[in-house]
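ENCODED BACKBONE
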Amino acid sequence: MNHFDYRDGVLHAEDVPLARIAEEVGTPVYVYSTATLERHYRVFADAFAAHGLEATVCYAVKANSNLAVIRTLAQRGAGADVVSEGELRRALAAGVAPEKIVFSGVGKTAAEMAFAIETGIAQINVESLAELELLSQVSESLGAETRIAIRINPDVDAKTHAKISTGKKENKFGIDLVDARDAFAKAAALPGIDPVSIAVHIGSQLTELEPYRAAFERVAELTRTLRADGIAIAHLDLGGGLGIPYGAEEPPPPDAYAAMVAETVGPLGCPIMLEPGRMIVGNAGVLLTRTLFVKPGREKTFLIVDAAMNDLIRPALYDGHHAIRPVREAASDAPSVAYDVVGPVCETGDTFAVARPLPEMRAGDLAVFASAGAYGAVMASTYNSRPLVPEVLVKGERYAVVRPRQSYQDLLGLDRMADWLTEADGPISLEEASPDAESEPPRRAAGADG
């Protein structure tokens, strides 16, 4: 369930008409719903409580790292799963308690490890023996005893897109299950290391429970083995990855997922960590865009919009599907046109949909790419020197710009000129390239929906 609905023929985010946001903030723009964020968190957390599980829900910051989004969830009680020092700093800045933060990822640096240890986070998830040895050195140098989980790779096929699968033996993540026992023995013998948990995460956008069941059964068996070896496994980190309906998918509900967790690892008596990202924020956001041109061709009709692959890369990167909804509701008997929906970026890959049946559109009409709250703005770039688009958070009748549109001055100011390029002619003035230092890129002119 989300809170993007038609009212009097106009698509709203909660109680705010999206046409108003387009007029006042401009397009393209990401729009998030507070009510949806809060509901998805509550439904997920309550499912585990209902099955008698002691669970800490650590929101996966990589899905959407906007500070306002993280804070909204932190105020509901969420922790954070982070994969870089930058994400850790974001979680802290948004008010997440350090003892509810877990640091994952295959490539942590010594500096990142030290910062995490000094911050006092809940645990660091180790993914290789080399990382384990470095963490021991860093921890010992700080006089610390660092709580860790070792992430195992259970060689389970999550049956998702190859680029978001993380639990097969050919993936870069975790330590092979067959080597896990030796890895824990090594961890227990190293100074500065306290191996208290097993971690597993097999992929993203899972729509079936059986891959989870297979992975968690292997975690349970390993837990019993390690305890028999004298290693006190006190916690389990079960990762995230529960999918959402982008189109025809029917992911299992959180209650069914929680019931399966209770069945597979519940008898071990371990508090658990869960790291949902997409499931919380995916359907809580849309990318609002405006039609620039309708371009009929001999074989196709192109709907050219002002959003592009640099703003939402999932279709180009993963063949990701996003429903497209016009902001002005079409009549039930309105004719449809099969559009190739494309953006302005100079790449054929800048295509959001091919032959997508939509109500007839014209220049100026507004539309949204639905289910864009996860892996949307957070993966955006400035390719083609297109400034980053703003993000808006809605709560009831109110909205706030929680990340402003990047100005051209901001964009150009990221670069520095080499000394030898300015010696003859003097320094280049950014003001000449962008006369108004405070200006934003031009907002799109109001059209039919403005």
